[in-house]
Design a protein that fits this description.
The structure is a single chain. The protein has 295 residues and is of the alpha/beta class. 37% of the residues lie in helices and 14% in strands. The protein has a six-stranded parallel β-sheet. A three-stranded antiparallel β-sheet has the order 7-8-9, with no helix packed on it. It starts with a helix and ends in an 11-residue tail after the last helix. The structure holds iron/sulfur cluster.
């Protein structure tokens, strides 16, 4: 993304009332002007959340103005690798970043299957004193295809994994932030009625509004193929949310799962029908409905 597009995007979000800019990639820290871009956000008195895979050169962190790095307004979401063993070089980089930045890091992970071991998240939080919150995502399909995602028959088992993890998090005084697309049907009714985290479940599939490197505007990363609007058109964020809500409405009607049309959670307004990219994948690629437990 060019610097001019980046600054236009930051001003677009600020004018839309957002107080936090989320920098995502790929790996946003690889942008050749990264420290400059961070300064441009901070001088507009906005918060920054940087989503990183954790391979950040010390020299880059050194290049960030000391006051930028010390600012409470700048934080990192580290996508912890749960797929590799502990001697892997990527994990070495990720732990080094936790050690250096400690509470400026919020740990997170995207769950790919129900047998995933999430214990590294709590272990690292305890070892490196990262922020007392962990962000949990579930791998949903990208609508244009090509990524690994949790199949519908496995979603309840992934929910059960998340429930067990939530119990451990509560014991450790850790807050769980659920990323988009988690739905009530993935959890037990006990969890939905009693967990302090249940209110986050079911309502979160919205056009969050992403600006792509070429200045196009999309509802979110998973729906980045829907990008008919441009920053250059002087759109407002509110207009973009309304535009994409209208465009996505037919897919919300279909819902992300086969049971959505008769679901009590949806009839009671507790669930919006889950991830729209999942609904599109169901509608466009019927082969994805196969009852396997692969991803
Ligand atoms: S509306 Fe669909 S996604 Fe939501 S809880 Fe019901 S079946 Fe699950």
């Amino acid at each position: 993304m060019s610097v001019s597009t980046f600054i236009r995007a930051v001003d677009f979000f600020k004018a839309g009332g957002l107080d936090t800019i989320h920098l995502m990639g790929g790996e946003p820290t690889l942008h050749p002007k990264f420290p400059f871009l961070v300064e441009k956000i901070l001088e507009r008195r906005l918060n920054i959340q940087i989503f990183t895979g954790g391979v950040i050169a010390d020299s880059l962190l050194d290049a960030l103005d000391a006051s930028s790095l010390a600012s409470d307004n700048l934080n990192f979401i580290l996508n912890v690798d749960l797929t590799h063993s502990s001697n892997d070089m990527l994990l070495h980089h990720q732990e080094a970043l936790c050690q250096r930045l400690s509470k400026k890091i919020t740990l997170g992970a995207t769950i790919l299957h129900a047998a995933q071991d999430l214990s590294r998240l709590i272990d690292w939080h305890n070892r490196w004193h990262t922020a007392p919150a962990i962000r949990l995502g579930v791998a949903h399909p990208i609508a244009k295809g090509g990524n690994r995602f949790v199949r519908e028959p496995q979603l309840f088992n992934v929910g059960a994994l998340a429930e067990r993890f939530c119990r451990k998090a509560i014991e450790g005084g850790i807050h769980i932030e659920f990323d988009c697309g988690w739905t009530p049907c993935m959890f037990s009714s006990f969890f939905m009625e009693n967990s302090p985290f249940a209110s986050q479940i079911g309502q979160r599939c919205n056009p969050i509004i992403d600006v792509l490197p070429n200045g196009s505007i999309a509802p979110c990363y998973a729906l980045s193929h829907i990008n008919d609007k441009k920053l250059q058109n002087k759109e407002t964020r509110d207009n973009m949310v309304a535009h994409f809500e209208t465009e996505l409405e037919p897919w919300r009607e279909i819902g992300s799962k086969t049971d959505c049309t008769t679901c009590a959670y949806r009839n009671n307004g507790i669930c919006r029908g889950g991830c729209v990219a999942r609904a599109m994948t169901r509608g466009m690629h019927p082969q994805h409905k196969r009852a396997d437990n692969q991803f």
